[in-house]
Structure formats: C-alpha cells, structure tokens
Amino acid sequence: MRQTVEAYGALAIYLAVVLAITLTISVLAGRIGRRRPDPVKIEPYESGYPTPPLMGRFPVKFYVVAMLFVIFDVETVAFYPWAVQVRELGAYGLAVMGLFLAILAIGDAYVWKKGGFEWK
C-alpha cells in the first residue's frame, strides 16, 4: 500500500509542477506580450489565407459530407483491432465483422441512393 501512495505522490508532484509552469507561462505571456491589433491580424483565416466574409449560410451538404467522413474514419479504425486479432477470433470474429460490414453496406447504399456521395 505504501508503494502505491509513493508512486501516486510522485505523479501528483509532477502534475502540480506541470500545471504551475503552464499557468505561469500563460499568465506571463498575457501580461508581458505586445498588443498591436491590426485589421489584417484579426481577420478570419483558414490555412494561413484570409477568408472573404461569408454570404449567407453554409449549405447543409457541407455538414453531411463532414459527417460521412467521420463515419468512414470510425469504420476504418474498427478494422485495425480486428485485423490484428483475426486468427484468435476465428469464425465467430469473422461472422461478427461480416455483420458489421453488412450494416455499414446498408447504410452506405442508403446514402448513395439519397445522393449523399455526389458533390455539386
């Protein structure tokens, strides 16, 4: 029990020092740093280039594509642990992954039918 307390005590000291350094640097940067607001500096930008003011709202299609991208990323990440353990999982693991792929294929077919993959 004593070893556990000592191990966590060292961790607590480390976290306290890291928090103190972080707060000190942040406060000093805010107090000492120069403040020269410039119209160009406060413009919204993306990837280092200023963006023009938006005329209206983003189309919903933008958000649909973003959500589809996230879903495909999650799909891809789900394959890595399965591929590492495929031999140990055997036929059951193969069946479960087949079911997973079937559900995803149904979802993909639905999105395709609704035109979610077409960019206009």
UniProtKB/TrEMBL annotation:
For this protein, what is the EC number? 7.1.1.-
Catalysed reactions listed for this entry: a quinone + NADH + 5 H(+)(in) = a quinol + NAD(+) + 4 H(+)(out)
Question: Which Pfam families is this protein grouped with?
Answer: Oxidored_q4 (PF00507)
Q: Which keywords fit this entry according to its UniProt record? A: Cell membrane, Membrane, NAD, Quinone, Translocase, Transmembrane, Transmembrane helix, Transport
Gene3D superfamilies, alphabetically? NADH:ubiquinone/plastoquinone oxidoreductase, chain 3
The protein's enzyme class: translocase
Q: Where in the cell is it found?
A: Cell membrane; Membrane
Q: Which residues form a coiled coil?
A: none
The role this protein plays is: NDH-1 shuttles electrons from NADH, via FMN and iron-sulfur (Fe-S) centers, to quinones in the respiratory chain. The immediate electron acceptor for the enzyme in this species is believed to be a menaquinone. Couples the redox reaction to proton translocation (for every two electrons transferred, four hydrogen ions are translocated across the cytoplasmic membrane), and thus conserves the redox energy in a proton gradient.
- Oligomeric form and interacting partners: NDH-1 is composed of 14 different subunits. Subunits NuoA, H, J, K, L, M, N constitute the membrane sector of the complex.
What is this protein called in UniProt? NADH-quinone oxidoreductase subunit A
Q: What is the lineage of its organism?
A: Bacteria, Bacillati, Bacillota, Limnochordia, Limnochordales
